[in-house]
Write a structure and sequence with these properties.
CATH class: Mainly Alpha
Number of strands: 7
Strand order of the largest sheet: 1-4-3
Bound molecules: fe (ii) ion
Radius of gyration: 23 Å
Largest sheet: 3 strands, antiparallel
Helix content: 40-55%
């Protein structure tokens, strides 16, 4: 991928984009599936965007990114989903970075207590058949009898959630892209480094438990699931957080809430389908997500306290970009719209819906007391109005989309369940 930024005021040279919140609109994001057909057939994508640069000069810049076709030499072109973004990086200003760095004492005192000591944490083995026990096989038999009642569309949702959890290396990488809070050495003693490693270690139990449970059920094609995980980790993700801790912690606040909702729903549904132990498993994972959400929203709450303008602009910026789902690049080697299919099943079964997206946004608006924040700059005031008006707008759009969706049944097969079909709509 090549990215070029031209300064039209001088029409000279090529240089990197400097950073500021105002550049958020410069970002271009496309997947090959969203390209005009002419571009698709040539396997070439060109994204063009015009942005107004911050500052009194108000100069115009053109940001252009181009993705060139892979050298295929006769071999089939992979239809694997990909994403390209313009390279807006390190968008926190030096002053704000200093301000953020001054929060270390606060993070030690206020953030780290959200972690649980290892000895007090549950472990996957607490909820799985004990392999050293004489009745291990009986325990597995019981598990399989309970899991036999789980419908295929439920399994698709649970597998999708498990794969999302299993791409944990990507999320730790994302946290370590953030200026001011990254773990600089891999074992940094700063509260941010301690938090990131311990958060990762807590999260690691989620994918581990769901993976082992699903393996023991015998209901899913584990090799296909494992391939999807390998593809997904290999794809990484770019949530457009620009190495900026303001944007990064808005993103993680949203995502932890989303996983709390999703695991909470798979818990409820497992109980309804008659697998109480699986309900407990999804429930304890949801509880972890809730605790993590509390921690990340606490960070953003602090940013609103010390820098209401900056926090407001960051919140609006991430909402404008739309929060990308961490597993949106999932691929199993066959289905190039696997994530869309999985999302449809999650939507139809009520595991995670467009309404949840709007609810999360509304929850965060309330959590950070966004409507009552005063003393904002003109730009931040506009951002405040934008985020406050967004949840009802998204609900309206969702209602319209749902009305269209009801027009006809659609089914899709998933390699995760041996290519059996489930209803998508
Ligand atoms: Fe998790
Ligand atoms: Fe999480």
């Amino acid at each position: 991928m090549a990215a070029v930024v031209m300064d039209l005021s001088t029409a000279r040279g090529v240089r990197c984009t400097a950073s500021s919140h105002s550049l958020s609109s410069a970002r271009t994001c496309s997947t090959s599936s969203s390209l005009p057909s002419g571009f698709k057939s040539q396997m070439l994508s060109v994204n063009l965007n015009v942005v107004r640069r911050a500052g009194k000069t108000g100069r115009l810049e053109v940001v252009m990114t181009a993705t060139l076709p892979p050298k295929t030499q006769g071999s089939p072109v992979s239809k694997r989903p990909t994403e390209t973004h313009s390279k807006v990086m390190h968008s926190i200003s030096p002053e704000k970075l200093e301000m953020f760095k001054s929060l270390e004492g606060w993070a030690s005192k206020t953030l780290l207590p959200y972690l649980k000591p290892v000895e007090k944490c549950w472990q996957p083995q607490d909820f799985l058949p004990e392999p050293s026990s004489e009745d291990f096989l009986d325990q597995v038999k019981e598990l399989r009898e309970r899991a036999a009642c789980l419908p295929d569309d439920y399994l698709v949702c649970l597998v999708g959630d498990m794969i999302t959890e299993e791409a944990l290396p990507t999320y730790q990488t994302m946290l370590n892209t953030l200026d001011g809070s990254r773990d600089e050495t891999g074992a940094s003693p700063t509260p941010w480094g301690v938090w990131t490693r311990a958060w990762t270690a807590e999260e690691n139990r989620h994918g581990d438990l769901l993976n082992k449970y699903l393996y023991l059920t015998g209901r899913v094609d584990m090799k296909s699931v494992e391939k999807t995980i390998q593809y997904l980790i290999g794809s990484g993700m770019d949530p457009q957080t620009e190495n900026n801790p303001y944007l990064g912690f808005v993103y993680t606040s949203f995502q932890e809430r989303a996983t709390f909702i999703s695991h909470g729903n798979t818990a409820r549904h497992a109980k309804e389908h008659g697998d109480a132990k699986l309900a407990t498993i999804c429930g304890i994972i949801a509880a972890d997500e809730r605790r993590h959400e509390n921690a990340y929203t606490k960070i953003v709450e602090k940013l609103f306290e010390i820098d209401p303008d900056g926090a407001m602009l960051a919140f609006a910026d991430m909402m404008k970009k739309k929060i990308s789902m961490p597993a949106h690049l999932m691929y199993d080697g066959q289905n190039n719209h696997l994530f869309d299919d999985f999302s449809l099943v999650a939507q139809r079964t009520g595991v995670y819906t467009a309404r949840d997206y709007a609810d999360i946004m509304e929850h965060l608006v309330k959590r950070w007391n966004v409507p009552s924040i005063t003393g904002l700059s003109e730009k931040a005031l506009a951002a405040q109005q934008y985020v406050c008006g967004l949840p009802p707008r998204i609900r309206r759009l969702d209602e319209r989309a749902q009305a269209k969706v009801k027009k006809g049944p659609k089914r899709g097969s998933f390699s995760w369940i041996f290519n059996r079909e489930v209803a998508l709509l």
